[in-house]
Amino acid sequence: MSIVYEAFFVQNVLISKLYKNIEFKHITTEFKPVKSHEHLYGTEATFIITGYGNDGANEGYKVQLVSCDSNELVELYRNILLPHITLSVSKEGKPINTNKLHFKEVKPFLVKTKFGAFTEGNQIDIDIIGR
């Protein structure tokens, strides 16, 4: 199995507005990780949405970790420069650019996640999203 990225995968339904909805919404901890964290897959974490951004090319939420039972996952989270969830992109938009959005403050709400990996076969490792 070749891991594309490890992330906290969102369990809530989040509505998007742009052309391409991101099917497996997530908070990336590491792209092409040197060391995988399979022993943590399925671990739950709760985040709070603190901001929203949409520049017509990218749409996303800024997030902050609220609770997680794994100190190792908390450390992975702390290494994220700008924790966010890409909701959708335009035809020309690229998810990697969501971290460049200007996030405006929103009424906070919680999202539940499970930690896992997205693989080269466009699969999520373990049944973390109930599909």
Structural write-up:
The protein is built from one helix and seven strands, in the order E-E-E-E-E-H-E-E. The C terminus is likely disordered. The longest helix is centred in the middle third of the chain and has 8 residues. It has a single domain, classed as 2',3'-cyclic nucleotide 3'-phosphodiesterase fold. The two termini are 19 Å apart. A seven-stranded antiparallel β-sheet has the order 2-6-5-4-7-1-3, with helices on one face.
Which key terms come to mind for this protein?
7-stranded antiparallel sheet, single chain, disordered C terminus, 131 residues, mainly beta, 2',3'-cyclic nucleotide 3'-phosphodiesterase fold
Write the CATH architecture name. Alpha-Beta Complex
The third-level CATH topology is 2',3'-cyclic nucleotide 3'-phosphodiesterase fold
What kind of oligomer do you see? Answer: single chain
Overall pLDDT confidence: 91
CATH superfamily: 2',3'-cyclic nucleotide 3'-phosphodiesterase superfamily
Order of helices and strands: EEEEEHEE
Which geometry do the CA atoms define?
globular
Head-to-tail CA distance between termini: 19 Å
Total number of beta strands: 7
DSSP strand content: over 45%
Rg over CA atoms: 14 Å
Query: Count the helices. How many?
Result: 1
Question: Which regions are unreliable across 5 or more consecutive residues at pLDDT < 50?
Answer: 127-131
